[in-house]
Amino acid sequence: MGNDFEVYVHVPFCLRRCGYCDFNTYTAPDLGAGASRANYARMAAREMELVHDWQRAHGIAEPAASTVFFGGGTPTVLPADDLVFLVGRIRALWGIAPDAEITTEANPDTVDAAYIDRLAEGGFTRISFGMQSAVPHVLRTLERTHTPAHVTRGVRAAQAAGLDASVDLIYGAPGESPDDWRTSVRAALDLGVRHLSAYALTVEPTTAMGRRIASGTLPKPDDDDEAVKYEIVDAMAQEAGLEWYEISNWAAPGHESRHNLGYWRNVDWAGIGPSAHSHYRMPDEGAASGKTHAMRAWDTLHPRRWGQQINEGYVPFAGHESIGPQADLEETIMLGLRLREGLDMQAVHARTGVDPAPVIQELTDSGLVTCTQGRIIPTLRGRLLNDTVIQRVFSAVLH
């Protein structure tokens, strides 16, 4: 319920798994019998129908989707017609707002101009390219399949088709120097993109890269190195006219990712596809009460079992949980402190009864936040030490 509703479609397929990747994604040999890319769009469309019926049965009345986002995995390993078909099913079931943002992620070597033109014809407004680096030896370390030339061709094709192009970068890869990182950021900005995401490399021990680090054949990421690289991208993005609006994201005004802002603002969204998460405001004791509570659900992990549940006529939830007032407030604090719009401490006061003035003073005196009209906004130092800021607010206002 609420003013915004989003749809996320997870496409859990990749041509090859990158060494650092811990996402729920599968190459063709991983899938095994009973699951395939060929019928994925049909199965995802059927899940949409089941979810829509489930929402109605539970008194959840959503407005037309304000954003649609295809993530993965690599959504663009599916034919462009499959993605366009799924947008059509969303439109038929929920409606899509006239000014909606419709995005797909793309690996740069999985799209060409014809593919991108088809997306534009089918209603897409935005493509987020997984660039990661512009330095060949860093791409090899990350086990990426594309070259810098693929990124240039993809972004240029998107721009020619009238789509907003964004690029994702990763910093902190083993062997990446600060100059390597500057090269990557400069290459991205020189493409004229109006949105840039930059994420510190996170290595899980179960990944191929994690095993190489554990064996000593690769050095582990260094926190100080990553802090330096964050300061580099922040300065270079601002010089190019892209302002930070979330800790890991910079954009020209009006080019922010509206879909991701919805996550950070805790709007409702339906997650479609294996492992996709959903978030709803559920009516309490029937729709007539007017009261709601937050609820989170997540889909079955493996595409085969996910498909079996759909064929049996069930929404393929693996689990769900109610989000109580305390957990809801914790999420509001954590998410708000990632955003340039900041955290409304007056609203926190209204929910907790705790005077926020002392913690606001402490954080501003420490140079971690600024405070404007009751909202605290992380400074550059506060972004680098965001966990510290969050914990201090938790300690001050939560019982």
Automatic annotation (TrEMBL):
Organism placement in taxonomy: Bacteria, Bacillati, Actinomycetota, Actinomycetes, Bifidobacteriales
Keywords, alphabetical: 4Fe-4S, Chaperone, Cytoplasm, Heme, Iron, Iron-sulfur, Metal-binding, S-adenosyl-L-methionine
Keyword Ligase set for record: no
InterPro entries: Coproporphyrinogen-III_oxidase (IPR034505), Elp3/MiaA/NifB-like_rSAM (IPR006638), HemN_C (IPR010723), HemW-like (IPR004559), rSAM (IPR007197), rSAM_sf (IPR058240)
Organism: Bifidobacterium pseudolongum subsp. globosum
Gene Ontology MF annotations: 4 iron, 4 sulfur cluster binding; coproporphyrinogen oxidase activity; metal ion binding
Function noted in UniProt: Probably acts as a heme chaperone, transferring heme to an unknown acceptor. Binds one molecule of heme per monomer, possibly covalently. Binds 1 [4Fe-4S] cluster. The cluster is coordinated with 3 cysteines and an exchangeable S-adenosyl-L-methionine.
GO cellular component terms listed in the entry, alphabetical order: cytoplasm
Primary localization class, coarse: cytoplasm
Family: Belongs to the anaerobic coproporphyrinogen-III oxidase family. HemW subfamily.
Listed name of the protein: Heme chaperone HemW
Domain Radical SAM core: 1-243
Compartments reported by the entry: Cytoplasm
